[in-house]
């Protein structure tokens, strides 16, 4: 972004694309209508989608497909809803087309994913009360404090991607995205004790963000230093609930450690826009009280 960029013009573009992101997330079940979204953005129907693609790195159709399949994977992993109903909810006219597309992205057909996805390993360990390493390795690390620029999110943790879209759109429009930036999220509430609509979280980046006062609605946040239990999760974000249940309900009580009064942090080690869900790597960082 050049030094002569007009801040007011930049803010207008950000606000317009933010309206598109909010519209898509709120109406994920509706047909994708690029002309309608051009009206939402108050931008030229001939050019607004090119602007979106340039800033977010994928077409809007790819965004909608990714979000619908992410939701479907969560429903398969975490609910007993019939697969046919999940297919309709994802916008597919029949089970055959849903199965084909889901398998092409998640590498397993829906029913097989429900029965044998990565979440199944953690569920088996929970059922066996296995606090050892049968489900995954947990490392105890001392992590340094991190200064973050974040976008706040309120609602289901499954939908924090909306806050990341806002964060990266704002930074990208200002030319502030840098190689080596780290993507993290802070989860401020216990989803077993707080209604999904009221859950608070923050989507953030760390590393070379030269902003003393981030533009609204972005703000600063801090990851506290200290010991953390780090569980590296490989696989879709949508199936991480079972890993959390194992970490908190099985590993922690048997570990000899106590959880500290600080948010759980997730660090995302690759990009869901260009990485297959089965290859996504996430470090789940549970803060611990010092020994």
UniProtKB/TrEMBL annotation:
Show the SMART domains listed in the entry.
Answer: AraC_E_bind (SM00871), HTH_ARAC (SM00342)
Alphabetical UniProt keywords? DNA-binding, Transcription, Transcription regulation
Matching entries from InterPro entries are given as: AraC_E-bd, GyrI-like, Homeodomain-like_sf, HTH_AraC, HTH_AraC-typ_CS, Reg_factor_effector_dom_sf, SmbC-like
All residue ranges annotated as the HTH araC/xylS-type domain in the record:
18-116
| Tree of life domain | Bacteria
Pfam families annotated for this entry? GyrI-like, HTH_18
Recorded protein name is AraC family transcriptional regulator
- UniProt source species: Pseudaquabacterium terrae
